Each structure stands twice: as C-alpha cells, then as structure tokens.
C-alpha cells in the first residue's frame, strides 16, 4: 500500500489541533497584504492583530496567491517521505491557484505522485474535504481515488455570507463605487453565495438580523430541494463562520443560537472564524453559514 500524504493550503482554516488530528503533513500558506507588507495568518499576524489594523480606516488590505515555486518545494519536501500527495486547496472559482497547481502536478517530477483536488471549496467546505481525505487515507485509498471522491461530491454543499460593509467588496471590484455609496447610505447588507466554487450575489437586506434569517431560510430550502433524503439519514451537517473581531459578541452568539435552533435535528460541524485572506474581501462582522452532505459519516450529532 502506498503512503499518501494530505497537503492543504490554509483556505480550510484548520486549527493546530485539527492539523495534528487529521495528520495534515503540510500547510501551504495563502498570504495577505496589509499596507504593502505581506503577512501569513498564524505566523506573523494573529486574528486580533488583523482586526486592530482594520480599525484604522486608512488600512489597505489585499490578497496574494502562493507562488507555484513555494507549492512545488512543499511537494518535493513531502515526497521525500511519502509516495503520493493529495493536495486540497482553495476553489478554482475563487483563485487561479488550483489551475496553476494542477498544471504543475503534471510536470515529470510530480506526474502520478501529486493529485490536486479541484473540489471547488473554501472555508467549512474545504475543512470537511480535509476530514474526508483523512478518513479515506485511513481506509487505504490512493491519492487519485481521494481526488476522484472529492471532485465527485464537490457540489454537495452551499455557503451563504452576509457582509456588514460594502467597503471591501468595492475594493475587490465586486460592486461598483456608485453601488457601494448608495448601499452604504441605505445601510444595505448584501448576502453572497458560494455554489460550485463561485462567489455570486444572492440577496440584499436592510440589517444583519434580516440577513441571518435569510441565510437560514436559504439553507433550509436548498436542503429540502436537493438533499431531503440525505437529511433524513443524518448525513447533512450545518456550519457557521464569521469575521467578527470580538468572539464574545452578542450578535455572533445570537446567530449561533438561531442556527442551532433552526437545525436542531442536524449534526453541527464547526463555528469558525473565516480565514483572514477571506476577511480581506468581506471586511469585519461578516457572518456565514453552510450545509454539507457527509456521506462518510464523519460528523456526529
């Protein structure tokens, strides 16, 4: 049996404990830039420090995909001890990193040894992919078999994100300056959705409370329409993520309570901060929720 290594980028926001428990051999970091200086979450920038920076309205944040040379060097290092690599990373719909990595995996030194899963996921969906990949490695599956599994089931999730400010979407070109100005004036809260790895507009509401209710309703509707049988079998889990600077914030606690009440018969997977490179695009106080089909029975109620 070949020895398979799980390698990730940090789009799944795995905790140090999860990295250890899942035996993730290597994390390739996605950097972000604050006022022209490059940072890596958990290495030279903490969650609290990032949001302290954002308190200054002059702070400018952006993201940068990992150099393919950094990725290939990580692969080379891992392949000294492992036969194969399954590489799970940020959705191809949100970054060119996946396509670049896939092309690199077909170079002679990596062909047949490195398999890049284009499972079109981010945040909680990629975290579940990490759990699934780790379980399949335990079952003795090859890197190619794991890649095929993740890609086969990559549409079995949905993510909704409610953004508190339009400032960062404007910077990223997601909304025009004029639309952002009008939206800010009217205190509009946009809700975005991620399906099939692509970020799209979903709805606009007038408060974060309305946004929370709308996201809960959207997830319920989707599960009923797409995965009602899986839900009856306890195979659909619910997750929450956010960019709330104060982890004890009243609004965040209310959202967690609302979601757990609305989905009290469902397994609850995680409540995590979104990765900081995503927070660069949403800004602070964004809230998100997702559902995911768990066909491997990894997440217990």
What's the end-to-end separation, in Å?
A: 33 Å
Strand content: 15-25%
CATH class of the largest domain: Alpha Beta
Strand order of the largest sheet: 10-9-8-13-11-12
Whole-number average pLDDT? 88
Shape: globular
The CATH topology of the largest domain is what?
Hypothetical Protein Tm841, Chain: A,domain 3
Cα radius of gyration in angstroms:
19 Å
Total DSSP E strands? 13
Give the uncertain stretches in residue-range form.
174-183
Helicity range of the residues? 25-40%
Number of helices: 12
List SSEs in N-to-C order.
Answer: EHEEEHEHEHEHHEHHEEHHEHEHE
Q: Based on the coordinates given, report the CATH architecture of the largest domain.
A: 2-Layer Sandwich
* Secondary structure category: alpha/beta
Any overview of this molecule?
The protein is α/β, with parallel strands linked by helices and 301 residues long. The chain folds into 2 domains: 4-29 and 66-152, Dihydroxyacetone kinase, domain 1 (Rossmann fold, 3-Layer(aba) Sandwich), CATH 3.40.50.10440; 157-293, Hypothetical Protein Tm841, Chain: A,domain 3. Helix content is 39%, strand content 24%. The chain is built from 12 helices and 13 strands. A 6-stranded mixed β-sheet has the order 10-9-8-13-11-12, with helices on both faces. The chain has a 4-stranded parallel β-sheet with strand order 2-1-6-7. It has a 3-stranded antiparallel β-sheet with strand order 4-3-5, with helices on one face. β6 (84-88), α4 (97-105) and β7 form a beta-alpha-beta unit. α5 runs antiparallel to α6 (143-152) and α9 runs parallel beside α11 (250-262). The radius of gyration is 19 Å and the shape is globular.
């Amino acid at each position: 049996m070949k020895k398979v290594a799980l390698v990730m980028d940090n789009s799944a926001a795995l905790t140090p404990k999860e990295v250890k428990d899942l035996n993730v051999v290597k994390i390739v970091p996605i950097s972000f830039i604050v006022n022209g200086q490059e940072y890596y979450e958990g290495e030279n920038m903490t969650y609290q420090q990032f949001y302290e920076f954002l308190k200054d309205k002059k702070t400018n944040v952006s993201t940068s995909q990992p150099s393919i040379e950094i990725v290939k060097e990580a692969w080379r290092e891992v392949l000294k001890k492992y036969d194969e690599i399954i590489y799970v990373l940020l959705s191809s719909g949100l970054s060119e990193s996946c396509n670049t990595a896939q092309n690199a995996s077909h170079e002679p030194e990596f062909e047949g040894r490195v398999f890049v899963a284009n499972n079109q996921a981010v945040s909680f969906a990629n975290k579940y992919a990490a759990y699934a990949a780790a379980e399949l490695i335990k079952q003795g599956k090859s890197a190619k078999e794991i890649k095929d599994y993740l890609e086969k089931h990559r549409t079995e999730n949905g993510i909704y994100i409610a953004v508190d400010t339009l400032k960062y979407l404007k910077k990223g070109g997601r909304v025009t300056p004029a639309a952002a100005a009008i939206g800010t004036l009217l205190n509009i809260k946009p809700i975005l959705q991620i399906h099939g790895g692509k970020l799209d507009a979903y709805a606009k509401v007038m408060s974060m409370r309305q946004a929370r209710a709308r996201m809960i309703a959207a997830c319920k509707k989707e599960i009923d329409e797409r995965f009602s049988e899986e839900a009856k079998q306890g195979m659909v889990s619910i997750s929450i993520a956010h960019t709330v600077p104060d982890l004890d914030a009243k609004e965040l606690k209310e959202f967690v309570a609302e979601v757990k009440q609305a989905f009290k018969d469902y397994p609850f997977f995680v409540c995590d901060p979104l990765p900081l490179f995503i927070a660069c695009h949403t800004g602070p106080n964004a809230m998100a929720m997702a559902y995911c089909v768990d066909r491997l029975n990894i997440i217990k109620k």
